[in-house]
Amino acid sequence: MPTYRELFSIPEFRVLFVNRCVVMLSVAASGLALGTITYRATGSPVLTALAMFGGPLVSLVASQLLLASSDSVRPRTALMWQMAAPAVANGLQAVPGMPWQGRFALLAIPYVVNAMFSGTQWVVVRDVVPEGSFVLARSALNLAVGGMQVVGYGLGGLALLWLSPRDLFLVAALADAACLVNVRLGLRDRPARGRGAGNVVRCTVRVNRALLGSAVTRPLYVAMWVPNGLVVGAEALYVPYGHGPVAGYLFAAAAAGMMLGDLVVGRFVPHRLRDRLIGPLRITLAAPYLLLLLAPPPAVTVVVAFVASVGYAASLPLQERLFAHTDAAVHGQAMGLYGTGLMVWQAVGALIGGLVATAVSPAHAMGAMAVASVVVTAANTPGLRRSAPQPELSASARPSS
Q1: Could you read off the pLDDT of 69-91 as tens digits, one per residue?
Q2: What are phi and psi of 214, to 5 degrees?
Q3: What pLDDT digit, counting tens, does each position of 195-217 carry?
Q4: Keyword ATP-binding, does the record have it (predicted)?
């Protein structure tokens, strides 16, 4: 079984890992800066929330038209564009006197570019690491995201005590520029995986339709999108459920559980067993929240959040299946569609959870979201069997030639 030491001995993977960490710091710094400026200018909590977390809505629209670029552009070039766009946008955000409407327009730039190339990084990861190491590599990058989100928002909050939001934008722009140089110097140039011919919009629509229309790959997307999104709807109620420090404990517990799941499944669970754990992990993601229907004390809910979040690790073997059942020429678009759909369903889940919480208590709403997640997982199980690995035949059972 591959180890983290073997993984980090690969120079190109180290480049990708470092970039992932620095990019998350940049995202946290620029998000806090934009949210602070927007709230000062408008006094609107809604606009502030959109400034910090509304960017994925731009990616949703752009990905429906431009996602095929993930396979039609040379990977290193695509990753450089992904670094250059936020560097330029954050640099312009630091211009004094920029109206908040203009800041929203600048916010869209990196999300449009990211939508075009959102699957490229995972194709490069698959090319860089040895066969059978993708799940370990993905788990390492997931750990980087979780850890650096905590560090980034913490450092960003402290930095605002001494720096202005404009200074934070400059820090973010410099971080993005450093990542751009790191990609250019640290990654080998590779040819595009796609054929490079034809209209990008037409190709995007055609491949998206094929992926979502397939009886094999559609259940994979449902499994990776919908149950996760519904549980995120439960997590979106942490603040109304636990006022003050309790909400912080819940978010911290959920992040710790997710990181533990990625670490154990990615590093210590063999490939065959990983695939068999998809069902149990999907149930683990939601079932603990059913206890919220009994309105337990907050200390129990913290444990629930930790245990449930381990179930997010089911996405690792599900991504393995997705690669196995898609053509290599569209792997970038397949993974880009996964990432975009995940963000959309997280937003949908948060909206549904908020609506349910207007009718019942936050605790009962969280339990209701868990029920919905379990129901979707159960209903999708027959479809997932179509993508399950076929058991290898023993020598005596193989057909004779």
Answers
A1: 878 889 999 999 999 999 999 99
A2: -75, 135
A3: 554 577 788 888 899 999 999 99
A4: no
Rounded to whole angstroms, the Cα distance separating 374 from 148 reads 30
Q: Where are the domains of the chain?
A: 1-185, 214-388
Domain 1-185, classified CATH 3.30.70.890, yes or no: no
Element of type H or E holding 303: helix 298-309
Rounded-to-integer distance, Cα 230 and Cα 328, Å? 31
Distance between CA atoms of residues 48 and 292, nearest Å: 30
Residue owning tokens 């080998």: 188
Amino acid, res. 349: G
Structure tokens at 191: 């040819």
Say whether 214-388 and 1-185 share the same fold: yes
DSSP character at residue 101:
H
Tens of pLDDT, residue by residue over 162-189, are 778 888 899 899 999 999 999 999 999 9
Instruction: Report pLDDT digits (tens) over 339-365.
Output: 888 888 887 888 888 888 888 998 999
Cα separation values, 181 from 15, 50, 113, 175, 184, Å: 10, 30, 18, 10, 5
Length of the chain counted residue by residue? 401
| Predicted local distance difference test score (pLDDT) of residue 183 | 95
Q: Tokens at residue 110, please? A: 């990196």
Q: Tokens representing 193?
A: 């995986």
Question: What one-letter code names the amino acid at 345?
Answer: W
3 state DSSP class of 130: coil
- Which ranges in 310-361 belong to alpha helices (H)? 315-324, 331-357
Whether pTM > 0.85 for this model: the answer is no
Phi and psi torsions of 295, nearest 5°: 55, 60
Report domain 214-388's class.
Answer: mainly alpha
d(CA 143, CA 70): 24
Mean pLDDT of the chain: 85
pLDDT at 194: 66
Which pLDDT does position 161 carry in this prediction? 72
